[in-house]
Amino acid sequence: MRRSIRRTMRPTIRRGRVAVALATLALLTGCSALDDSDPAPQQTYEEGTLRVLASSELSDMTPVLDLVRRETGITVKPTYMGTLDAVDLIAAGEADTSYDAVWLASNDYLRLRPEAAGKIISETSVMASPVAIGVKPATVQALGWDPEDVTWAQVEEAVRDGELTYGMTDPARSNSGFSTLVSVASALSGAQSALTDADVEKATPRLKEFFQGQQLTSGSSGWLAEAYDRRGTVDALLNYESVLTGLPDLTVIRPTDGVITADYPVSTLAASPKSAREDVRRLTEALRSPDVQREITDRTHRRPVVPSVAPAPGLDTARRRELPFPGSQSVADGLLDSYENELRRPSRTVYVLDTSGSMQGDRLDRLKSALTDLTGEFREREEVTLMPFGSDVKSVRTHVLDPKDPEAGREAIRRDADALRAEGDTAIYTSLEQAYDHLSTDRDTFTSIVLMTDGENTAGTGPDDFDGFYAALDATGRQTPVFTILFGDSDRAELEHIAELTGGRLFDAQEGSLDGAFEEIRGYQ
Q1: Which domain holds residue 250?
Q2: In whole angstroms, how large is the CA radius of gyration of the chain?
């Protein structure tokens, strides 16, 4: 059964993955003048300082923004977030009083969501980067590919024959991941225009073959590149051309049968004051100046949008077919639902959960609540193990979400979460070792461990012993990352070491919420 996918950074927000497309939008394109007749602003503005909600990959624009500040006096204060999660905030109205402008990889999601589209009064494209494939040169040679003339069908054939494996970001959270999914589905279905439900259905058998080759998943392009480099076992990465061009030893290929391109528009929020709107106009004007456009393409490998500025050396200038974004909620939701529950490899996760005595009270209540909310995120075919610990591991409870009745699995996880009790000391490393032992049987899954603790290790195995244990694991075991959650009085250095050792990542629930940390990790599972 097809369902609307929900992905959030905050538990108070609920998103149907995309909403009904609008025939007309309140979005303006190009360098459009702002409408002074808009409703009165609802927030104050600190002159010359723009608060901008930005896609996470735009953190590489800091040197460019420093240049713009020196030239214009405008300071940009960015808050980085995944594109789809940022759209949630905009649609819910939570961006209205916190930000003056939005800078996403694409506004296509806004175009499909009327409650979000109505929050924006202008957009100006600043740069561009198409979806591409970065392949190891040795693999390109072995496949006999001409990098200038490769199709998605050839990629699928190589995967089917066991000659190509790859990594890509999670389409349910990442604009690059969803753009890649749409590009592949459009090409393999032979769609001549925007994808339809029939196109998705037609492409599903070939898409199943295609995603058998996906060996890495991630909620961010940065971690995906790190995991690719660390493991060294994947032949290719699917991501934006700009990300791939910045990585060493990859041949960047833009499939000739079409891709989707991010255009990175700077958009003005309708709730912003007139003075902020004027500064947004000045900012975009500066970003589109020839000197800054050259700086952008040279530094970030994105393509300039000003015709007089040439792309940075190494960027392919040959024209490629540009694929349209899905135009309806049905198509986008159906495509994501198929990916989550049918196409991709299933996930296998052990949740190593601190239920020591210090978790008694509010902390344990927050853990139970976060886990209960998280059950709605678990996919069909997914294996979830809860491993609560104190002085030692207290129990090991494993559930597999049967596609015939996934809700039964979710309900069982909720019952286990509700039964958690706080007592004992804190045996972090002993519990992690048991989690790795539990995962010792190799399966065709995305496998990971999530460690949540509110304190330092006080019992059982110590950190040095765990380092030795991890080093002695076989190659498959060492490819299982630990995603650590900083919570309560836990030690940042201790959890950072575990994440770095295992190739995972630390998520901060001291600054943010425990719910948000668990949900953000979902993009990496």
Answers
A1: 129-261+323-339
A2: 23
